[in-house]
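Side project, low priority. Logging it here so it doesn't get lost.
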Amino acid sequence: MGQNFGFVKVAAAVPGVEVADCPHNVKEIEKQIAEAEGLGVQIIVFPELSVTAYTCADLFGHTLLLEQAQRALSGLLEATAHTSPLCVVGMPVAWGNSLYNCAVAFQQGRILGVVPKSYLPNYKEFYEERWFASGLTVTGETVELCGSRVPFGVDLLFESAGAVVGIELCEDLWVPIPPSSHLARQGADIILNLSATNELIGKHRYLLSLLQQQSARCLAGYVYASAGFGESSTDLVFAGNGIVLENGSILVQTERFVQSPRLAVSEIDVERLRTERRVKTSFAQGTESTDRPVRRIPFALADVPLRLTRRVSPRPFVPSDSATLHDRCEEILSIQAAGLAKRLVHTRAQSAVIGISGGLDSTLALLVAVKALDRLGEPRQKIIGVTMPGFGTTGRTYRNAVALMQALGITIREISIREACELHFRDIGHDATVQDVTYENSQARERTQILMDIANQTGGLVIGTGDLSELALGWATYNGDHMSMYGVSTSIPKTLVKYLVHWVAENELTGEARDTLLDIVNTPISPELIPADENGEIKQKTEDLVGPYDLHDFFLFNMLRYGFSPAKLYFLARYAFDGEFDDATIKKWLKVFCRRFFNQQFKRSCLPDGPKVGSVSLSPRGDWRMPSDASSAMWLHECDEL
């Protein structure tokens, strides 16, 4: 897969057709193949029966049409002999005493194989059994086509080093166990579907749901091409659908009801799909006993420069559209609150103790605690919010902490840590003017001690405020803010915390509480362990020290979720953050991320309990089991090679 990092560029083509005019149709197909090759497409699929058109009806019984279809295909093979994409077109093919609705795969002027349609619709507006035979039992056969004897059957996989391709046709998708399910279990990374689906009210939405479900169940790429303008409108209308999907997500789709030819072009990440399959071990269970053998037909995946057209989200934890983000925030908060409510009930806790700093993380933890107590029908006064001013506490964060606690109606305690820390510095012989890691971490551990002791006093639990991004980077004081009795945000990344707090402000609160939350959202992220500047403003800004959370969360998601290498992370980050971060900045923080992620595993090995919320989590009990002394040498070496 080389420098393409596992991406395969595919196209679903919707050509213009003339019913029963094969020469015209293959000329249109030839044009789209040339267009696709110019875009770097490596695999292109056309609609069902695209050589003849789908709506020929009883003309399929005429010898002239079948002969002209073969002659037109021969001309197409000759015209595309020097083109590189794997091409798949639809046409009727006679074999034995029957006619089959087939997909013909060819490359560089040579037919590689012919796949017949397995399931023929013969209900309502469809009556394919009038003309065609089912290919469901056709395996291990060959057929004479365009002067060559070629593999023929539903048992074909087209295999290259970069991708394995399986084929099904239209109705095959709509049955309980589609052929693509078997093909995927036998190794097909990408499924091509040649279709001729007519349009009905609501049918398109249902079609999209089928495509998304099947590509997700198969953990596969799915390229769907359906007949469009030019098909007969005697009884039906064909709107033309070109759709490319990957593991349940639509990458691109063409506009429907357009009279001109269309191409849906995108890149399928085969490396990602293969990683998903290896991780999801149930995918391969029972394959040998339940799936029939397949014939593997080699083809050459064209070596073309990679130019991504698919969107790469710079903030993969945060949905890009507002409606999905709204639903996501509501669901996440409900998961967090439900987890905390169960723990409070189970332990018969009389209080929930939270350190409130006026920052994002402690604010989110407080909002979750309020939601949990409200759902349990318990008074909010059971939440004890403790503000613990220290050497770096600024007026802005202190005022926000107090104002938020007052607005939410919880119990407030204020305990300064300055004197205790100064005494501790004297006890261990530390010069308080040396503002090093000892100076900082002593404050974090003092705050945790206070919270734990108050929890003991009140028969309660300390609610953790740390987040997923801090755990990934180890940006937490071991047995300081790293520790709690239940961590409600341990699988919430920093980039998402801000949106959750903002969502609560806009959707659940009003007045002073809302204004306070919005100011917290706009406050620079800081542990506030170093004294403020001469203007009383935050001096110690986390992202100046450890790097931008936007980058780190991007690295975190793609490395843990898909197992991407540093080289691929860098490639994707350059694309996703184009104009936002330059190459040197991305390289710098990628290396920091890799180094810190490996070196700080010991902090994740003893995490408090907390609910899993998204697909990425670092809990040592559920999602991430990594030796604390694993070497980062190979990852750092690859960073150096970028």
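Brief comment: The longest strand covers residues 86-95.
Revisit when time allows.
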